[in-house]
Fold this sequence. Notes:
- By secondary structure, the chain is of the alpha+beta class.
- Among the domains are: 491-509 and 722-802 and 821-910, HAD superfamily/HAD-like (Rossmann fold), CATH 3.40.50.1000; 513-604 and 613-718, Calcium-transporting ATPase, cytoplasmic domain N (3-Layer(aba) Sandwich); 925-987 and 1002-1187, no CATH class.
- The protein has 38 helices and 39 strands.
- Helix 12 (413-440) runs antiparallel to helix 13.
- The radius of gyration is 37 Å and the shape is elongated.
- Mean pLDDT is 82; it is low at 318-381, 813-820 and 1190-1197.
Amino acid sequence: xxxxxxxxxxxxxxxxVIIGFKDKIRNYYRLKCHLKTAHYVQVSENKESxxxxxxxxxxxxxxxxxxxxxxxxxxFDANISTCKITIDNDSSLSSxxxxxxxxxxxxxxGENGLFQNNQHDLGSSHQELLTHKNGLTTAQATQIFSxxxxxxxxxxxxxxxxxxxxxxVTYFYLYQMMCLWVWxxxxxxxxxxxxxxxxxxxxxxxxxxxVNSEKRIKILAEQQDTCLVLRDGKWVKLxxxxxxxxxxxxxxxxxxxxxxxxxxxxxxxxxxxxxTGEAMPVRKFPLKQDNIPFEKMSSGRIxxxxxxxxxxxxxxxxxxxTAVNNSLKNSVISKGLDLSSTESEKPYSxxxxxxxxxxxxxxxxxxxxxxxxxxRPIENANxxxxxxxxxxxxxxxxxxxxxxxxxxxxxxVFNEHLRIVIPILLIWGAIGFGLTIWLMxxxxxxxxxxxxxxxxxxxxLLPAAFVIGQSVAANRLKKNNIFCIxxxxxxxxxxxxxxxxxxxxxxxREGLEFNGAQEVSSSNTQPPHFKSPQxxxxxxxxxxxxxxxxxxxxxxxxxxxxxxxxDIEQFRSTDWEIIGKGLSKSDENxxxxxxxxxxxxxxxxxxxxxxxxxVHVVKRFEFEHARQSMSVAVLDPDTNHVHVYxxxxxxxxxxxxxxxxxxxxxxxxxxxxxxxxCYLLAMAHKDIGVVEDISSLNSMSREQMESGCSxxxxxxxxxxxxxxxxxxxxxxxxxxxxxxxxxxxxALTGIHIAKTSGMVSENSRIILGDMETSGLDGNKYLVWxxxxxxxxxxxxxxxxxxxxxxxxxxxxxIGDLVLRRTANIELAVTAASxxxxxxxxxxxxxxxxxxxxxxxxxxxxxxxVRLHMxxxxxxxxxxxxxxxxALRAAHVGLALSESDASIVxxxxxxxxxxxxxxxxxxxxxxxxxxxFSAYKFLIMYGETMAxxxxxxxxxxxxxxxxxxxxxxxxxxxxxxxALTQSKPAxxxxxxxxxxxxxxxxxxxxxxxxxxxxxxxxxxxxxxLYRQSWFRCHEFDSRDIDTSLWWLLGDNYEAETLSILLLxxxxxxxxxxxxxxxxxxxxxxxxxxxxxxxxxxxxISFVCLADPNWLGCLxxxxxxxxxxxxxxxxxxxxxxxxxxxxxxxxxxxxxEYRIKFWLYALCNVLIVxxxxxxxxLGPVGRFIKKRxxxxxxxxxxxxxx
Length: 1200
C-alpha cells in the first residue's frame, strides 16, 4: 500500500504539470532561435474575459483578484498555440515567403523580422476604389495571395474520440480519475466501474455537443464556388478560394458570395437574412464617380455585398443581361410615344405576401451560360462586376465565425461564485480526509478511506448538469421557432432585466401604410403654408407626383418590388411603373438609372385618356443614416429639364431647405402628425434647368445636389403596431422587465408607439429632451419639454426626484414589484441630446428614466445598449439591418429573422413576433432555475455522501455494495436527468431566479437541508442505541481487516445508514423540483414524479417488508437462511451470501421497521416544509428583507 500511495502522489503531481503546460510542453524540447530560421512559432495571446454581470460582493472581487494574480504568476493568463511555419516558394514571387496560420489568419514574416497579419486596403473613398476597376494581373494576385492566404475559413472539426480526449484532459476529470484509481486498487471494482461509467457518459455527452456544434459552424463557415474573375484583362474561371482583395469578379443570380465586395457595375439584389437577420431583400448600388468617403459597415453599406449573402438578381447596362428579368416584355418606351392604349395597373405584389419569393429568385438565370464570356476583353464583357474588398476572416461574416470558433471567456455571476465554491468544497474535503484518518486509525488503510470521502464531495456529474439544462432549453426554444447558436446565453436570458427594442418591423408591422401627402403652397403674394393633406396622389401637382414616383431606391425583381418598405409604399401609392432596361428597340433608356412611366399625364383623370408621361432617373444618392436623407436627379424628356428631389427626415430637411420655403407652423404641423404615430418624411425640390450633357451631372457632389432646394411636401405613413405587441410588452412588464425603445424614427412617433403599445403607462407624463438653438447667442442647448403642451421643464432633476420619492413610498406600501416600479415621469431623448448627455457624462444619471431613444444611428444603438449593460443584464430585439451591432453587443440578442441560422446574434426567431422575447425569457428563467436545482442536488449528493462516509467510519462499517451502485447508477443519474425535464412556466412572474451559488436562497436551501439530514441521521442512532434488541449486538470491527470493506455492511448500523440516506438522496431531487415561479408545478414534471415515487416505493418496501429477494439484494432486513428460519421466517428460495455478522442477520423487528419508516417519512416532510415555507416561502422572504442591506442610493432603481 505504501508504494501505491507514493506512486499515486507522484503521478498526480506529474499529471497536474502535464495538463497545465500541455499547450507548450513540446516546445521545451525545441531550441529557441530567431524567427527567420524557426520551423515553429509559439503564439501567446492574452485571455480576454468578458464579465457579463459585475458583482459588488467583496469576497467575489477579492477572489477574482487572487485568481488573476495566480494565473499571471504561473503564466496561465494566456492562450498558447504552437504553429508550424510554412515556406511559400512560388516562382512568381521575388523571394520565398515564410508564414504561419493562426485563427484562420495568415501571418507573414516581414523585413523587420516579425510575423505580421497584413490587410490589403484598397482605399477609403469611392474614387480610390474605382481606380481598381481593371482588376489584377496574375503576378499582383499571387503577391497579394501570399500575404492574405486562401479565401476559405477552414473549420477543423475534431473526431468524437479527439473531442472526448480533450474533454477528459482537464483538472476536473483528472481529479475524478485519480480517485477512481484508488477505488480500483482498493477492490471497489463494481463501484469504481459504475462511477467510471457515470464520468464517461458525462464526458461523452459534452464531447458530443461540442462536435455537433462545430459541425454546424463548419456548414456556416466553409463555402466555396467557381467565380468568373478578371485577371490580366481577361475573364477566367477560378475557385473562390483564390480570390484576393483587388480582384474583379462577375456575379449572377443564385450566387452565394464568399467575400465582401463593392459593386462596380450594375445593381444587385441580395438576401442578407442569414447574415444580418434582415428579412427584406436589399438593393446594392454601384460606386459613384465621386470623392465620397467609403466604409463598408456604415457609409458604404449600400454599395457593399457581404460574404454569406445570396444574390437574388443582377442587372447591368446590357440588354441581354436585363431583358430576361423584366416582366414588361411587350412594352416599348421612347420619348413622345403615345401609350394611351396601355392599361395602368400594378403588375407586382408585395414581397411580404409572397413567402416563396427567395426560392423563385434564386432560380433565376440558373442555366445561363458563362462559357462564352471567357477570354472576352473588358470592354465587351457586359457583366455585373464587384470589387473584392476583403476575404477570409476579414469579411463581416468571417469575423463573426471567428468569434464563434475562438470565443472570449464569458464570466457570468455563476462562474464568479464557482471560484469560491470549489475551494470551499476542497477545504471541506481536506477536513473530511483528516477526520477519516482520525476515525479509522492512523494506518495506511485510513488514507484510502480519506480519498473516498474527497472523491464523493465533487460529483462527476457537475460538468454535465448545466449543459443538459441548456440543451433541453435549446430544444424547447427550437420548437417555438427560436434558434440558439450560443447555449450558455440561454441562462443569461434568465437574468434579463432590461429589454431594448427597435421600433419599425419589431414593435410595429414591417410594412407601412401610406397615409397621404401634404403639399406646401408658395407664391410671391403670400408666405408658404401647408395645404390640406391628400390621400390621392393624382390630386397633387406634377412636380410632387414626379418626386414621389422617382425619389426612392425601389427596383423590380420579377413582379415584386424590392427596396426599403417606406420607399415601396411611397412608390405603390403613385400608380407609376418601373420600365426595365433593354426593352426598347433603341438603347436610349439604357443610359439611365431608372425609367418610370405615369398612369396619366394630367393631374386629374382625363376622359380622353391622354398619353402617359415618362421620366428618367439620371443620378441618385442613396439614403445614409448619418445624413438622414437621399436624393435623385430626374430628367423630364418633355422639357429636357433636370429636377432634383431630396427626401429625408422632416428635421433634416427643415435645416437643409431654403428658409423661404418653410411654413411658419412647420414645427406644430410635423409634431401633430408625429404625435399621432405617423412615420413622417419631408421632400424638397429644385429645378436646375436644361442639361444638354447628362454625363456632366457625374461631377456634381452630394452637397451641391442637395443644397438650395425648396420644401414641397410632407409624406405621412401609418406605423401600425403588430397585433400582439401590447400583450407581449404587458407580459414582459409583469415579468419585472424594463422595456425600452431604441429607434431611428422621430421622437414623437416613438412616444406615440410607446404609449399605444403599453410600454409607457397612459397616465405617465413624458418629457422630451432635445437640442434647441438659443435666440440669444445661436448656440444649441439641451431643453426638456412636455411634447404635448410644449411647456419647458426648467428643473428636470427636481421632477425626477419627486417621482423617485413616490416610487419609494409605493415600494414600502405595495409589495408588488410592477406596481411599485411604475413611474409617473418618463423621459425621451433625440440622438442629439443623447450625444450631448454622453459627451458630458450625464447619460448614466438619466439612463433608467429614459424610455424612448429616437433618431439613433446604428452606432448610437450600440452605445445605448452598452450603457444599459453596465447596470443590468440587457437584451436587444431587432429585425436585423441597422440593429446588427446592438444585437451582437447585448448580453442577449434576439434577431427577428426568417432565417433559421442567423449568426448576427445568439438567438433568432422566424416567428417575427414580440412574444418570442417572452418565450425566450420564460425558457431562460426555467433553464437557469432548473440548472441551479441540478447544481443543488449534486451538492447535496456530495455532502450527503460525505456525511455517510464519516458516519460509516465512526462506526467502522460500510454500507453494502449494492446500495452504492443503486445510488450512483440510478438515483444520481436518473434523478439528475429528470430534474432537467421540468416544464417552463406558462407566463412570466415578477421575479428572476438566482444566479448566485453563494446567494441567500441557494445557501439557505443547501446548507439547511444538509443540517436537517445530519441531525436526522444522528438522532436515529440515538433511537437505535436505545433499542433492547440492539444492545450487545453492536458491530465490532476490531477483529476484521478494515481493508476488506465488503465485509463491513452486514449489520444494523450499515442498514440504518442505507435506509435513511437512500431516502434523503431521493428526497433531495423532489425538494429541489419545487419552485412554481419559473417552472410549472412540481407534479407536472412527470418523469421526476415517476422516478421519485418508484425509488421511494422501493426503499419503503425494503424497509417495511419481511426478508425478500429485493431486501437481500441490498443486504437489508436479511440474513443467513438458517437464521431467518430460526427467527420465524420462511426459508428463502434464492441464494444469499453468508452474513459477516456474529448474529447472522440484520432484520429489524416489525414494530421498529414501521417506526423507522415513519421517522424517515418525517425527515422527508420536514425538509419539504423547510424548502416550501422557509426557502421559497414567507419565512425566507422575511429573513431576507430583515437582514438585507439598505441601498444608500437610487442608482440601482429600474423603473418598469
